[in-house]
Amino acid sequence: MQDLLRLARLGGFERVTAQVARVRGCTRPIQLTGYSATLDAETGEALNVFTSLDEPTGRLLVPCGNRRVSRCPACSRLYAADTFHLIRAGLCGGKGTPESVRAHPRVFATLTAPSYGPVHNQPDKGSAGVCRCGTRHRDDDPMLGSPLWPDAYDYTGAVLWNAHASTLWARFTTYLRREVADVLGLTLRQLRAVLRISFAKVAEYQKRGLIHFHAVIRFDGPEGSDQPPPVEATGDVLVTAIRRARHRVRLVVGSDSIGEYELRWGKEIDVREIGAFGKGSPLDDEAVAAYVAKYATKGAETAVGSAFDRPLACPTCRGSGQNGKAGCTTCDGTGANGDLPRSGMTGHARQMIRTAWDLGALPELAHLKLRKWAHMLGFRGHFSTKSRRYSTTLGALRDARRDWRTAQGRVREGLADHDETMLVLDSSWTFLGTGYTPGEELLAATVREQRALALQLKHEGGASE
Predict the structure, then answer these.
(1) Which residue in 267, 265, 263 sits closest to 251, CA to CA?
(2) Residue 151 burial (C-beta neighbours within 10 Å; 0-12, 13-18, 19+)
(3) In this structure, are 83 and 28 located in the same domain?
(4) Are 369 and 383 members of one domain?
(5) Count of CB atoms within 10 A of residue 317's CB?
(6) What's the CA angle centered on 291, arms 94 and 144, to 5 degrees?
(7) How far apart are CA 123 and CA 138, in angstroms?
């Protein structure tokens, strides 16, 4: 409160609140100092100048842009919205993708990890929802996903599977093309001449700490979404090829220290055709896009908990404990950036992290950088990826938003009538730090609360009394 009063006495308090509102209550905004000027390209005359020195606090706040909801709910919502539009554009058109893609065969597939030991769960068939331990677990029970018999659980195999999940996906897409060609009676060269397989996927952690993938997979013509696939390339062909390709993927890894592991997809697989937009199907375009976007902002907190959301490896020595030939003074040679939290994390998650850390010390597994990714339970891939011709890109969506904001800024600055080609932007910014002052944090909390209320009212379809 003292800092809030200090800000109020600076003068221009509305500028302080406007800055916090502009970053949408970002949890840890970036602080910059500097200037930007819009110049006339011919004369060099400064038509508009903004400098952080004119701000009451002497600096400018910009959003952190973190996609993780555990790090910044405000910025993650924007990332989820962009992902929603990216996925939706590939399902029903828009953002540069033709609406004709609605008629292309499309499926929603979920590929899971194999079992590395029985875990506490909520079975929905044959046992009236009772786990093998004899308990009917609640949805928020921390025991869900943890091993029934921890001493017998294969933690090494689980971590190695996470570390190679992206490689398994890459091999799956290779085998998928081969299986589609086989079902259609074509060679791979003939297939490439008449058909392209496009996809977008996100990774999600299961309660047991293992990655699985949700993917939208679509048939296109050879040049992409602008062309229809051949009539014989139906949704049934795509479903059949996905199931076959899943079985063919194998990856053998290991070393003298841990033995040999054959990694493959799990037995559980869900492959369903996507219904047309607006038909009320449980798996229509809107539902799939919203489902995928939701998981694009998640991290390991689903399995680990929000109590641990940072790299465990020391930033100086990157987990090696060595800085050159001497021991690292930052971590005192341990390689760790602090200890694991004592609360807010299950014993299963703690053991997954410790296993990844121990495996990261093996020279033959150094290429996996498991100590760097121990806090992610060994997973080191991208959480959302897409093929080149699926739809628009996140970069294109951000560019469009930036252009719109620039146009709105020119209107506010009275430059809307100027020829854009005759305007030049000159700017220089310096990084100061991150975060708010205590008073600004109070303002940010108010912004977050107001935005959360507005979102709730939007979902409820009206205003509350």
Answers:
(1) 263
(2) exposed
(3) no
(4) no
(5) 22
(6) 165
(7) 12
Phi and psi at residue 147, in whole multiples of 5°?
A: -65, 145
The reply to whether 384 and 417 lie within a common domain is no
Residue 381 lies in a domain: yes
Cα separation values, 110 from 168, 181, 211, 215, 431, Å? 14, 22, 11, 6, 42
Considering its fold, how many domains does the chain have in total? 3
CB 422 within 8 A of CB 40: yes
Q: Are 211 and 190 part of one and the same domain?
A: yes
Q: Would 311 be classed as within a structural domain?
A: no
Regarding whether 34 and 80 lie in a shared domain, the answer is no
Residue 311 gets which letter from DSSP? -
Judged by DSSP in three states, 233 sits in: coil
Residue 46: what are its φ and ψ, rounded to 5°?
A: -80, 110
321-to-174, 318, 339, 367, 436 alpha-carbon distances in Å: 39, 8, 15, 17, 33
305 lies in a domain? no
Tokens of 95: 């953002």
* Pair 47, 189 in one domain: no
Provide the 8-state DSSP code for 252: E
How do 322-323 and 326-327 pair as beta strands?
Answer: antiparallel
Reading the chain (465 residues) residue by residue, the pLDDT tens digits are 888 888 888 888 889 899 999 998 899 999 999 999 988 888 888 888 989 999 999 999 999 988 887 788 888 888 888 888 898 899 889 988 999 998 999 999 999 999 999 999 888 765 677 898 888 888 888 888 899 999 999 999 999 999 999 999 999 999 999 999 999 999 999 999 999 999 999 998 988 999 999 999 999 999 999 999 999 999 999 999 999 999 999 999 988 889 999 999 999 999 999 875 444 556 677 788 887 877 777 665 566 554 466 788 888 888 888 887 788 888 888 888 877 776 677 889 889 999 999 999 999 999 999 999 998 899 988 888 999 999 999 899 989 988 888 888 888 888 877 777 788 888 999 999 999 999 999 999 998 888 888 877 776 664 443
**How does DSSP classify residue 328?**
P
Assess whether 193 and 277 both reside in one domain. yes
Q: What is the pTM of this model?
A: 0.84
Domain housing 358: 322-376
Is the Cβ–Cβ distance between 230 and 105 less than 8 Å? no
Let me know if residue 405 belongs to a domain: yes
d(CA 106, CA 237): 11
Do residues 97 and 210 both lie within one domain?
yes
